[in-house]
Design brief:
The protein has 78 residues and is mainly α. It has 3 helices and no strands. It has a domain of 29 residues.
């Protein structure tokens, strides 16, 4: 009769099982968070969309369009 009258662990088994679920949930959550952080994903599966004006500004900065073409695009987009 080393372990008491019931011969088992009793509520410690339930507590251990719940602790194990919490531990693995935390580990999996950290892995998912890390992957999202590294890949830049924000949970919706889509990247942030740029506005047409931002795209035109970037094209102007890269030299793909002239200032006149940019002004025409800006007027058209207003």
């Amino acid at each position: 009769m080393w372990w008491g009258y019931d011969g088992g662990m009793g509520w410690w088994v339930v507590f251990g099982g719940l602790w194990m679920l919490f531990f693995w949930g935390l580990i999996i959550g950290l892995v998912v968070w890390s992957v999202n952080r590294v890949t830049g994903s924000h949970g919706n599966g889509r990247s942030v969309e740029e506005t047409p004006r931002e795209i035109a500004r970037k094209r102007l900065a890269r030299g793909e369009i002239t200032t006149e073409q940019f002004e025409e695009l800006r007027k058209t987009l207003q």
